[in-house]
Structure formats: C-alpha cells, structure tokens
Design brief:
This protein is mainly alpha-helical. It is about 60% helix and about 0% strand.
Length: about 80
C-alpha cells in the first residue's frame, strides 16, 4: 500500500468515527417537560354531560359564533351551570 492510501483510509476511519461521537444524545428521562395528567375531578361521562348541557343552553339562547364559544367555555368551566 502506498502512503496516500494509508492516509486516506485513516481519514475515512476518523470521519466515520467522529460522526457517531458528535451525534446528539437524547435528553435524560428526568429533564423531559412535565405533562400534567388529565383532571380526575370528573369522569369522561360527566364531562360529556356538562358539555351537552352547555350546548343545550347555548341553543336555547340562540348564540352563534364567538358569543357561543365564550358562553360554552364559561359554562363548562362552571360545571354546566349558568352564572
């Protein structure tokens, strides 16, 4: 083998080896942002009933668009009760 072939092979080996060394590692498990679990105050059936109640109330008031969205949001926040 010639000297240039040996040098080229060494450079190739260093290039391939340094690619793995410079790759980003995933963050440790402890540093992941905490995701809050869904609220356990009400079950899915309770939430569905509250949403239905608020929808019925919005229909009875004849609300549409932004006013309806705002009303339903407040209603669901208050557990389906009108303020």
């Amino acid at each position: 083998m010639t000297r240039t072939t040996v040098v080229a092979a060494a450079i190739l080996a260093l290039t391939l080896g340094s690619g793995a060394a410079l790759a980003q590692n995933p963050p440790p498990a402890g540093t992941a942002p905490a995701v809050s679990p869904p609220s356990s105050d009400a079950s899915a059936a309770d939430k569905k009933a509250i949403a239905k109640s608020c929808t019925d109330q919005a229909n009875a008031k004849g609300l549409h668009g932004k006013a309806r969205k705002k009303f339903r949001s407040k209603c669901k926040h208050n557990g389906g009760k009108v303020e």
